[in-house]
Amino acid sequence: MSSDLKLGNTLIRADLNVPMDKQEIQDNFRINKAIQYLDEVREISKSVTFLSHLGRPSGIDPEYSLKPVAEEISTLIKEEVIFIDTLYGPEVKSKIDSSPGRIFLLENLRFHNEELDNDIIFAEKVTNNFDTFILDAFGASHRNHASIVSFGKFIESYQGMLMTDEVQNLELLTDSPKKPFTVILGGAKISDKLNLINKLLPKVDNLLIGGGMCFTFLKALGFNIGNSLCEDDYLNTAQDVLDSEYGNKIILPSDIGVTKSISSGIRNEKHISELSDDDIGIDISHKTVRQFESLLLNSNTVFWNGPMGIFENDNFKFGTQSITEIASDLNAYTVVGGGDSVSAIRTFSDVSKFNHISTGGGASLEYLQGNKLPGVNIYKPLIL
Question: Is 30 a known active-site residue?
Answer without folding.
Answer: yes
